User: Which sequence fits this backbone?
């Protein structure tokens, strides 16, 4: 069975050049399997540290910074997600996806080697940047290699992978912490990620095209402020500060204002981060 591959777009100002290619079903499945591994890792690391955190905080003497191990990952992941999509339009899906995997793996290895809580928080932020790229580019690449009539089915598969990994995360985190070390909560990502990276390098042959797109940095900044403020409010609320405190209220207000400015900015931006017509 053969599945059609997307044609490569020609350089701006020239006639379209058809570089259509066909992928066999087995090639498609290798690519999809690698994408599933990447999705599994990104989703798993949102929850795998939950059961390991008490041990981590005790070992690194950082109980007061307990919540930041998870928060740093979520913050950078949320901010990186739309940026990776735009950058991949500019420099090619495969290259940027591989970079995202490498960032995630480097962050994972650094997390496993962390000697202080501050180091772990910084390394989790690095890991989250890679995870943001994995999350968005997985679905983008599906659109590149799978015919439109079959995309819904494959996206359903990835939804199941996300749900399964989110449930398995705490269980696997507890198992690794109890039987090995909390550091293996992060090291476990490395062999899985290397397999995904190798499969993508060998089997994913997307056309490399440099498009004249530009990143809307103002929009990206406003989106980052909105998302970060909202996440901080939900993380700090009721724990570090009362929900009715000025700190939490100001975070919600900042998030709302930044969100409004972001929508306003995107209505006239030539290269919006998130096209509003979507």
Assistant:
């Amino acid at each position: 069975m053969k599945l059609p591959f997307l044609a490569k777009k020609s350089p701006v100002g020239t006639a379209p050049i058809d570089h259509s290619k066909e992928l066999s079903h087995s090639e498609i499945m290798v690519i999809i399997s690698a994408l599933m591994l990447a999705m599994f890792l990104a989703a798993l690391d949102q929850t795998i540290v939950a059961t390991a955190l008490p041990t981590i905080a005790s070992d690194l003497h950082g109980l007061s910074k307990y919540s930041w191990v998870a928060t740093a990952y979520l913050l950078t992941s949320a901010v990186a997600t739309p940026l990776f999509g735009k950058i991949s339009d500019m420099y090619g899906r495969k290259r940027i996806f591989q970079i995202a995997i490498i960032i995630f793996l480097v962050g994972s290895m650094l997390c496993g080697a962390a000697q202080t809580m501050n180091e772990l928080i910084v390394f989790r932020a690095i890991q989250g940047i890679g995870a943001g790229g994995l999350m968005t580019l997985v679905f983008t690449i599906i659109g590149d290699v799978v015919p439109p009539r079959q995309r819904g089915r494959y996206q359903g598969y990835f939804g199941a992978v996300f749900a399964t990994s989110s449930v398995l995360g705490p269980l696997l985190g507890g198992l690794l912490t109890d039987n090995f070390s909390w550091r293996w909560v992060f090291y476990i990502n490395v062999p899985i990620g290397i397999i995904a990276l190798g499969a993508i390098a060998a089997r994913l042959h997307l056309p490399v095209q440099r498009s004249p797109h530009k990143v809307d940095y103002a929009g990206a900044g406003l989106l980052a402020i909105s998302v970060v403020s909202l996440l901080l409010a939900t993380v700090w609320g009721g724990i570090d500060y009362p929900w009715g405190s000025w700190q939490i209220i100001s975070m919600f207000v900042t998030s709302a204002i930044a969100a409004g400015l972001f929508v306003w900015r995107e209505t006239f931006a030539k290269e919006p981060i998130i096209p509003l017509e979507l």
User: Anything to note?
Assistant: The two ends are 33 Å apart (CA to CA).
